[in-house]
Specification:
Enzyme class: transferase
Helix content: 40-55%
Keywords: Magnesium, Metal-binding, Nucleotide-binding, Nucleotidyltransferase, RNA-binding, Transferase, tRNA processing
Largest sheet: 7 strands, mixed
Protein name: CCA tRNA nucleotidyltransferase
EC number: 2.7.7.72
Oligomer: single chain
InterPro entries: Bact_CCA-adding_enz_type3_sf (IPR050264), CCA-adding_enz_C (IPR032810), HD/PDEase_dom (IPR003607), HDIG_dom (IPR006675), NT_sf (IPR043519), PolA_pol_head_dom (IPR002646), PolyA_RNA-bd (IPR032828)
Structural class: alpha+beta
Number of strands: 11
Shape: globular
């Protein structure tokens, strides 16, 4: 098998070989190349020790030298070059106590997580596949290298990575590997929130976010996202829905593009429903106020998983407004733009569309037509430059103080009132009109 290595990767491998060392592209880049996917990055493994790697390349960074990793810089690109190694005992389910360098490629490949990630390649030897990675690629299987219990005991995050790769590649998890996942899922408690978050996001933005249900069935979400389990099996006896809350969420996630903010929003948008479910005398379910509870849950979960403030803010806001429905009029759209945010408004429309498409056919056309009309009015408001924020007002605090108002709460309230006045009619956003309005309010 021939893999087209990037020129700079070939340069690094050739330089190491010219000095008597073995060197191979390894791991995910080999797997993705075989699958005709574009690798995100290229990792290289070599028999050269870290100090020897550093001597052979002009620009290097000691990114993980204690574990044998040196980053080689060529132009604007960086490549991790790691010495063949054997991991020592894992004492915390996360990190090896120590690593030992080895001269044998097979020993290095043996410590890796899954067979499809344990292949190496260079142009001289071609594909090195000791553990049947190619066979598992052909059979579309996620299988651990060696004993899955050993692999998962070494690093519990691999349990979540199994589902993540399953979602990215649409491969089922091999039976023995799945059995070990179910058995050792509780050990994910040892893994840091940041590492859990990174894997969860990769799963969600994959082509198959619905594989999160596999994580539920294997006992993973019970540990890292119990809020998901709470949605499973919660029926929605209402004409608007045909799935239970969890199944509806799976369909809604698939209905938005592979964007972190959108997929997280759809993950959380109905998490408040189990707590807010009521059933009337006719057997119909209602979920009044679920959006606010969902927002609270989203904020709590994202804080727990150490998401950055910007993501927490955006996703929480979208979850809060995911069910915000009004008649599609210019005034209503301008007010919605003000409440939700001009930049977030296209996300809000995408969230509503995904939600509607994951519901039953009941009034679906009406819902979708409303969303399309709101999108057109939003675009028109942008083209017109309609004022929907305080920053766009024709007057500011200084002008109000010139009219005799003092800085403080009253001045802020007046600016908010002026904004509402202008949102009702954009033609009012003129300095003289707004000043006249203020003078009248002040009795001048």
């Amino acid at each position: 098998m021939k893999i087209a290595l990037p020129r700079k990767v070939t340069m690094i491998i050739n330089n190491l070989q010219l000095h008597g060392y073995e060197a191979f592209a390894v791991g995910g880049c080999v797997r993705d190349s075989i699958l005709a996917r574009r690798p995100e990055d290229w990792d290289i493994t070599t028999s050269a020790r870290p100090e020897e790697i550093k001597k052979l390349f002009r620009r290097t960074v000691d990114t993980g030298i204690e574990h044998g990793t040196v980053t080689v810089l060529i132009g604007k690109d960086s490549f991790e070059v790691t010495t063949y190694r054997v991991d020592g005992a894992y004492e915390d389910g996360r990190h090896p106590k120590e690593v030992h360098f080895t001269s044998r490629l097979e020993e290095d490949l043996q410590r890796r997580d899954f067979t499809i990630n344990a292949m190496a390649y260079n142009d001289e030897v071609r594909l090195v596949d000791v553990f049947g990675g190619m066979k598992d690629l052909n059979h579309h299987l996620i299988r651990c290298v060696g004993d899955p219990r050993e692999r998962f005991s070494e690093d519990a995050l691999r349990i979540l990575r199994a589902v993540r790769f399953s979602a990215q590649l649409n491969f089922p998890i091999e039976k023995e590997t799945a059995r070990a996942v179910r058995e050792l899922a509780p050990t994910l408690e040892k893994i840091s929130a940041e590492r859990i978050q990174a894997e969860l996001v990769k799963l969600l933005v994959s082509p198959h976010p619905e594989r999160i249900q596999d994580a539920c069935e294997l006992g993973i979400t019970k540990v890292i996202l119990p809020e998901w389990d709470a949605m499973t099996g919660v029926e929605q006896n209402t004409p608007h829905h045909k799935y239970d809350v969890a199944q509806h969420t799976l369909h809604a996630m698939k209905n938005v593009k592979r964007d972190k903010i959108l997929r997280l929003t759809m993950l959380f948008h109905d998490m408040g429903k189990p707590a807010m479910r009521t059933t009337d005398e006719n057997g119909r379910d209602h979920f009044k106020g679920h959006a606010l509870v969902s927002e609270e849950i989203a904020r709590k979960v994202m804080r727990r998983l150490k998401f950055d403030n910007d993501t927490v803010k955006k996703v929480s806001r979208l979850v809060c407004y995911h069910d915000y429905r009004v008649e599609a009029t210019p005034k209503n759209v301008r007010r919605a733009m003000n409440r939700i945010g001009v930049e977030l408004f296209p996300y809000y429309l995408a969230v509503r569309m995904a939600d509607a498409k994951a519901q039953s056919a009941y009034r679906r056309r009406e819902k979708i037509e409303n969303i399309i009309a709101m999108r057109q009015l939003y675009q028109q408001a942008l083209l017109n430059g309609d004022c929907v924020t305080l920053r766009q007002l024709a007057v500011g605090g200084r002008e109000l103080m010139d009219l005799g108002m003092k800085p403080g709460r009253e001045l802020g309230s007046m600016l908010s009132e002026l904004l509402e006045y202008v949102i009702d009619d954009p033609e009012r956003n003129k300095r003289e009109i707004l000043c006249a309005y203020v003078k009248e309010k002040l009795g001048q």
